[in-house]
């Protein structure tokens, strides 16, 4: 069989580009793709399940894991730590599962320094007008926050060239199909199949 | 719209791996993919149409085209020239058509020196036993020719790492699906979309 190791898919993109929706739909559609579960020090909200929505851990444990290299990346929001536990990701990859990390640009670049063989995907809105429209229509953000998101997006765009692929999200179903094509194509990359090629040659 | 330029898909692989069948099926299935038509100096056979099966040209014209850089690659078989006309390929790529060149390893490496942005795909049989079986079951080759093909295959395998992808042909329909995924994914590659990214940023 071809490449048996799972792919690490790192998905970034501006707020409002729809990366969450695309990743959620991908995981529903494909039984070989799994979302990475983040660890956090914040308290669980009503209905949140440990090991499903997040791994809820203490601040002491979180900082200890950072210290010992157990977090692939982490960030602090509103005084709480959020991060990606390395062990869980490594176990899934070794088991042949494709793992999706939905993280912002700085975290993605941190992960890339450890996993250059990962697949780095930047979700793009069709235009900045459309991004503004999507952010405004959510109705949850003040005009100031919308402007702040747009200026963050402009900064994030300056990092696109560090990603392997752009994923245009003009339509969720189309974007998911493109993402599936990226997964299937990446499994065929020569450098991921050196062992398999050797097996064929020696058969 | 994303990357508007067509992709140059260069497909190689040992005799008996099934690259011809896979490419033919791909072109039937996808309206955006076209087979490149070779030029040759051999006489047309009954039913062969100029500009469809081959471009039939004189030896004088063929060698003149080689001299002026009009052939992407060429080879001589049984005293006749065969080659890929550069102009036809460039016109199709510029018109946004994906072009398939089904050529052997040496020709592919020659093309790669001119088109590093091409997508280089090596078709693999599931095993060498299966390759031997397919070559034998054709019934058109003598045992000596089968052995010769297998030893050529062993040489071709030493060049696989110069290809971007391997395409396992365990089943024609599955192989065609993987090839379609490669095409769709390559159109999403960041370096093919720099102009599109700039358009989105400035919109």
TrEMBL record, chains A, B:
<dbReference type="Pfam" id="PF00625">
    <property type="entry name" value="Guanylate_kin"/>
</dbReference>
<feature type="domain" description="Guanylate kinase-like">
    <location>
        <begin position="6"/>
        <end position="184"/>
    </location>
</feature>
<dbReference type="InterPro" id="IPR017665">
    <property type="entry name" value="Guanylate_kinase"/>
</dbReference>
<keyword id="KW-0547">Nucleotide-binding</keyword>
<dbReference type="InterPro" id="IPR027417">
    <property type="entry name" value="P-loop_NTPase"/>
</dbReference>
<protein>
    <recommendedName>
        <fullName>Guanylate kinase</fullName>
        <ecNumber>2.7.4.8</ecNumber>
    </recommendedName>
</protein>
<dbReference type="InterPro" id="IPR008145">
    <property type="entry name" value="GK/Ca_channel_bsu"/>
</dbReference>
<keyword id="KW-0808">Transferase</keyword>
<dbReference type="InterPro" id="IPR008144">
    <property type="entry name" value="Guanylate_kin-like_dom"/>
</dbReference>
<keyword id="KW-0963">Cytoplasm</keyword>
<keyword id="KW-0067">ATP-binding</keyword>
<comment type="similarity">
    <text>Belongs to the guanylate kinase family.</text>
</comment>
<dbReference type="GO" id="GO:0005524">
    <property type="term" value="F:ATP binding"/>
</dbReference>
<dbReference type="InterPro" id="IPR020590">
    <property type="entry name" value="Guanylate_kinase_CS"/>
</dbReference>
<dbReference type="GO" id="GO:0004385">
    <property type="term" value="F:GMP kinase activity"/>
</dbReference>
<feature type="binding site">
    <location>
        <begin position="13"/>
        <end position="20"/>
    </location>
    <ligand>
        <name>ATP</name>
    </ligand>
</feature>
<comment type="function">
    <text>Essential for recycling GMP and indirectly, cGMP.</text>
</comment>
<dbReference type="GO" id="GO:0005829">
    <property type="term" value="C:cytosol"/>
</dbReference>
<keyword id="KW-0418">Kinase</keyword>
């Amino acid at each position: 069989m071809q490449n048996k190791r799972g792919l690490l898919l790192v998905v970034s993109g501006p707020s409002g580009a729809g990366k969450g929706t695309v990743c959620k739909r991908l995981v529903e559609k494909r039984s070989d793709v799994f979302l990475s579960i983040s660890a956090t020090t914040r308290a669980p909200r009503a209905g949140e399940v440990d090991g499903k929505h997040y791994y809820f851990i203490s601040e002491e444990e979180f900082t200890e894991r950072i210290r010992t290299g157990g977090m692939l990346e982490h960030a602090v929001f509103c005084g709480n730590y959020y991060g990606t536990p390395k062990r869980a990701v490594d176990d899934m990859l070794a088991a042949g599962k494709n793992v999706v990390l939905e993280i912002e640009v700085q975290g993605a670049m941190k992960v890339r320094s450890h996993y250059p063989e990962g697949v780095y995907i930047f979700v793009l809105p069709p235009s900045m007008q459309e991004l503004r429209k999507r952010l405004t229509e959510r109705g949850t953000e003040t005009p100031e926050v919308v402007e702040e998101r747009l200026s963050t997006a402009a900064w994030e765009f300056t990092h696109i060239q560090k990603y392997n692929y752009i994923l245009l999200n003009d339509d969720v179903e189309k974007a998911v199909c493109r993402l599936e094509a990226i997964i299937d194509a990446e499994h065929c990359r020569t450098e991921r199949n050196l062992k398999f090629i050797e097996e064929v040659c020696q058969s």
